[in-house]
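Pipeline run #58 for the internal structure catalog. This entry was flagged by the ingest filter as a single-chain record with no existing model, so it goes straight to prediction. Upstream metadata was stripped on purpose; only the residue string is passed forward. Reviewer on rotation: M.T. Logging verbosity set to normal.
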Amino acid sequence: MTRQYQCVQYCVMYLTFNETFDTLPSACNATYQNNECYSHIGFNYVTNLIQITFGEQSIENSNAGPGDYYISQETEMWHEAYNIQWTTSKHKCYHGDLCDFEYSKAKILQMRKLTTGFNQFQQKLASALLPAEANIIGCLSKDGLIITCGENIKSCSLNIDNVYANKSHQGCSSQSDDQYRKQLGILEETSYYLNAWYFGPFPLIFGIFTVVFTLKQDSIARINREHDQSLANELRKQTVYDTYIDDISRLLLRRDFNRSDSSYLKIIRTKTLSTLRQLEIERKREIILFLYENELIQNNKCPIEELVALDNGDLIGIEFKHSMTFRCELVNLYLASILVSNIIFNDCQLRNADFNGASMVQATFNDSIMSSGNFMNSDLTGASFNENNMRNIKFAGATLTRARICNSILEQVDFTNADLIESNANIDQLMIPIGEKANIFINTRFPNGSFSAINRSQLILDGSAEEMCTTKTTPWKTAVGFENVTAINTGNESSTPLAPIDGHCFFNCSWNSQAEQLVHIQHFSLLIDNEQAWYNLSAHFACISTNQNDKAYVQIEYVTDENADIDSVRLESDKGLSSFHFKYQIGLIPSGARDFSVNIGADIERTSTNNISAPYCAIDSVTYFIFKKEDK
């Protein structure tokens, strides 16, 4: 009596190339008894999917004995397109319960090892069989010799009907098969040439293929080592990711966790930046979504000081895309100052997102709601904006060089100090207001290199001392190591011989007195760094003193964004003038300047009299504004 085995009932299942196949799914748990079990495995190298079919008898008259493997395979290698797209293996076995399942597990494991270095294998195989310069190709015969095919034959084939019985054929395809397969678009139906991925006693075939294709054992060993290393790297990355999620989750669940405690946020930030550096794109994306869902990077839940700062975090190439399983709802996302290139947002909700100061070169935003987003001072060189809602976005100080903005709604967008050079922005169109909500162009460089209107407003606050003498609140601060600068209100003091230039007040600078004020000029940085920003500094001076050497001054000191001094300018009064006179100075603002401090005071010699505060110098109407070089 022929022995009966437990075989998997007819079932079709799919796996990805990365999935582990250790157990049968519930849909394939049913079994039946038979003296032989059948399986059919297909590997699709385009979609990276594995199709396994159990219980389908598609092999007849095998003549294989108990314990033997039976493999029916066919290989086609095209001259025009020699990449292997997919492979099939038909098999039946006689040597134990669920031998079809065990065979499939082993076969999939072997195939995974062989997919490492797959492109290199294809190139070697093609160069051996299919010379690029020849219209007539050569194929391997059964004895391992290269034979010349007919003029119309474009593929080599290998047919193995029963390896154990050595019933096989290889060589040139038939013309009918060649044309038929070409019409179907089949480039490759098996990867048998991959050498030694099957089981069983096939020394003859193995020896032929080893010699013909020069796939030496050391190459196989190298491929296996690379595959093992790849698996080890994958395991390491998964371990890093799992450890991060576990550690941060435990921290968030602690009773004493308080986001207002900066020490907790520092721990999360440190772990996050370290983890991001060790992971690939997909897991980096999951890290960001984990932080977002736990409200650690949402700017509407708490002050920015209580969010996890990811500045300089490595998110290169990460993609957020709406799908059936991910809605891409990222409203109020906070990713200020991140370091990223080629980031993609596709069909996402990004209202009120904050990317202030981020480096986002070659970023892509497609079909997304971006209204009220903050991109101030961001680097968006080469970025692409397609079919977005971009109402009320802040691009002030942003670099949009070579950016592409297509089919998007731009309304009340702030382009102050933005660089649009070589972009495709249609300035004439963007200048037309949508209703009453016009886009803002101040200190902006246009695509052709010209500049928009420049903000020529007075940048020094309370330059005439009106606030100091009337409300006693003023932006002026006493300089370190100096006495106070005061204000004289001529409406209250009729004894002063001076008449104010503006209003009722002026600055009173006595011996060793100085006041200072910090002025920000970041919104002129584009004009400044292109050496087209000029300043106009002016003031009115007078000195009430018997010493002809006493004089008043206004001094400007320029600093970088790192507070490094780069240049200074000094405007002084003439000597011996007891009534207000006007002085001004014009010059080029040094490249790199982002702020300047303005100091007002007087150089008064100390007299021998007891009343050392009697002599003083007056300053009024201190002004500073910026203009373009050609407007000078």
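catalog note: Confidence is low (pLDDT under 50) at residues 58-83, 159-168, 176-217, 608-612.
catalog note: The chain has three domains: 5-215, 311-430, 466-631.
status: ready for reviewer M.T.
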